[in-house]
Amino acid sequence: MARNGALDFILHGDEKILSPLLASRPDLATCTRIQHSPDVVRMDDKPSQVMRRGKNTSMWSALSSVRDGEAQAAVSCGNTGALMAVAMLRLRKLTGVTRPAIACLWPSRGESGYNTLLDVGADVRADEESLLQYALMGAAYYRNAFDAPLPRVGLLNVGTEDHKGRAEIKEAAQLIAEAASLGRYEYVGFVEGSDFASAHVDVIVTDGFTGNIALKTGEGTAKLIADTLREEFTANLTSKIGALASTAPLQRLKKRMDPRRMNGGVFLGLNGTVVKSHGSADATGVSAAIKLAFRLAQSGFQDRMAERLASVAETVQERVLSTKDPREAASDIKSDAQVGET
Amino acid sequence: MARNGALDFILHGDEKILSPLLASRPDLATCTRIQHSPDVVRMDDKPSQVMRRGKNTSMWSALSSVRDGEAQAAVSCGNTGALMAVAMLRLRKLTGVTRPAIACLWPSRGESGYNTLLDVGADVRADEESLLQYALMGAAYYRNAFDAPLPRVGLLNVGTEDHKGRAEIKEAAQLIAEAASLGRYEYVGFVEGSDFASAHVDVIVTDGFTGNIALKTGEGTAKLIADTLREEFTANLTSKIGALASTAPLQRLKKRMDPRRMNGGVFLGLNGTVVKSHGSADATGVSAAIKLAFRLAQSGFQDRMAERLASVAETVQERVLSTKDPREAASDIKSDAQVGET
Q: What single-letter DSSP state applies at residue A122?
C-alpha cells in the first residue's frame, strides 16, 4: 500500500503482541503509536456483556480515542454488534437519530460505480421513522462520498406497486417522499432486490435484517459464480488454454467485482466516524476500509449530516411523534436499549 | 422441447387468440385442449379485486380445472399475488396450514445441485408458527423432488449465534427443532444469506419479504456478473480471442447457473399443485416450470405432505395455540384475509 502522508495510526491492543509486529514494519512504525489494552472482544461475546465489562478491550479503547478527539475515525474488524453497542455508549447518537445504521457499498452500473445500502445490520427491525432517518443519513453519506449533489433514494420492497409490502414500509414511503427537499435527495420510490446494481438509484433503504441477508446473499452468489468459473476453467487442458487466453478480461472482471474494494460498513448516526471492516478481510480489504475512514474524516460530512438531521428531525418527526400512540413510544424506548444486539 | 407422452395440456385463455397459435404447432395441438375464458388478470391488478371480479379470467379457469380434477397441476406466468389469492379461494388451504408459501430452487454446491428457499413472496410477514409450517412443507417438497429421505432444514438469520435475530425467529428455531423427527427432517440451526448455495443445508426457511428480496438480490447479482463478463470479453480484439478460446467453459458456466433451469415457484400448503413461472420466462423457462409441475403431480407428494402436516399440526401447534393471547389469535384471522396481497 502506498503511504498516505496525512495518515497516522493509533493501534489499540496488547502491547506485547503488537510491538514486535510493528517493529518489523519500520515504514508503519514511524506513523503509528500503540495504545495498550489488555483485553479483546471475542466474536461470540454478547454486545450487552461487552457494554458492561468491556472497558479494558481494544475496541473500547479505539472508540474512546475517537470520543476524546485523539483519533478522527475508528476502524475495526471485530464483532459488529459489540462495536455498535460500545460506539453508541461512547460516541452517543446524533440529535434526531433514534437508531444508528450501518451503510455498505454495492457495485453498480451507475456513474460512481457504487450504490449505498443501509441498514445492513445495526438493528433487526426498523419502523417508518427509522427508515426515514436511514434515507437522510444514506443520502448525506452518498452525497459526500461521491460528490453527488442530489442522491436518488429508493425504498426496498417486494414490488414497485404502491399496494405492496408491509405497513411500515408504505408509511415510510410517504415520510421519505415528503422529506426529499429538506433532506436534499430525490425519492425514486420502491426498488426491488434486483435493483441493487441499478443505475437509477444511489441509496437503497431497508431494515437491518433484510439488508444483512441481502448483502450476504449478494456476496454468496458472487462467490458461487467465481468458484464455478474457476472450476470450469481448470476442468481440462483446453479449458486451461482458454483461461490463459482470457487472463486479461477475467482479471478486469475480478477487479471490478472485487468485494475487498467495497470493504467497510460505515456507522451512521453517531458523534464520530466508525468503519467496520469485514472480519475476514485481508490487507487489501483493511486498506480499503482505512481509506474510506480517512475520506470520511477529511470530508467533514459528519458535521453537515448532524446539522441536517437535527433540522429535518424538528420538522418531520414532530408530526410523526405527535400522531403516535403513547404506548408505542414507551416500547420504542424499551427496544432502543437492545440496539446493537445483532 | 422433447415431447413427454404422458403430458396433456389445457390452455386457458381467449380462444380467438389461442386457436391460431395452437394451429401453427400441430405437435402441441394433438395433446392440447383450449378452455375459453374471455378475461385476463393484469400484472397490476390487486389480488383482492381479482378475488371479487376475476371469475372469467384465464387464471381463475386454470385453478378451477385443478380444483375439479380436470388438471393435476396448474402453471401460470401471471400476477403472483392474484394467483395465490385465487388459489387459496379455489383450492383451499391444507389442514394445519395457516399460510401457504412459495418455494423456489437455488443453485447449490450440494449433491442435488439445488437448495430450496421458502417463502419467497406469498406473505410479507411470518410468525413462528408459519415458519414452522414452512419448514414442514419445504422438507416434504425437497424430500419428494430430490429423493432425499432426511432433508436438512436451516432457518435464515443475520448470524448463527443463538442470541441473534428477531424474537419470532428465536421462537421458530425452538419449534422447528422440536418438530424435526415428526416432520422427518434434520434441523441444522440458523443459516445466513451467504449459505444459500451451501452443501450443508437443503431447505432454507424465511418470511416472504426477506425471501423475495434475497431471491431477487441473487438473480440481480448473477446478472450483473454476467453482463460485466460479457463487457470484458468484448472490450478489444485480444479479449475477443480470449472469449473464443474459452467458449466451452463459459458455456458450461452459463448452463450450470442458468436461472431458467430453476424457473418455477411452487405453491405449498394448498389442496392442489400450482407452479408460478417467472413473468419474463422464455420457452426454456416455461418448459422447466411445466416439467416441475409434471414431476410434482406424478410424485403424489401432495397427499403425503397433507397427511404429515395434519399430524404435526395436532401435536405441535396445539401447544403453540394454547399459549397464545386470544387478541393475537383474532388479529391472525384478520391478517389472514390479506394473504396474497404481495
A: S
Run of H or E residues at B29: helix B26-29
> Which CATH superfamily hosts domain B105-233+302-342?
Isopropylmalate Dehydrogenase (3.40.718.10)
Question: C-alpha grid cell for residue A91?
Answer: 460516541
Instruction: Give pLDDT tens digits for B8-61.
Output: 999 999 999 999 999 999 989 999 999 999 999 999 899 999 999 999 999 999
Q: Kindly give, in sequence order, each residue whose CB lies less than 8 Å from that of residue B223, ignoring residues fewer than 6 positions away.
A: A194, A197
Tell me whether A219 touches chain B (CB under 8 Å): yes
Portion 105-124 of A in contact with B at CB < 8 A: 107, 109, 121, 124
Q: What angle do CA B18, B342, B187 make, to 5 degrees?
A: 110
**Interface confidence (ipTM) of the complex:** 0.83
d(CA B80, CA A83): 41
Break chain B into its structural domains and give their ranges.
1-92+263-299, 105-233+302-342
Give alpha helix (H) positions in A149-246. Answer: 167-178, 180-183, 208-233, 237-245
HSE-up of A329 (CA within 13 Å, CB side)?
9
Number of helical (H) and strand (E) elements in chain B, helices listed first: 15, 10
Question: Which residue type does A319 have?
Answer: R
Map grid coordinates 422529506 to a residue. Answer: A179
Provide the whole-model pTM. Answer: 0.85
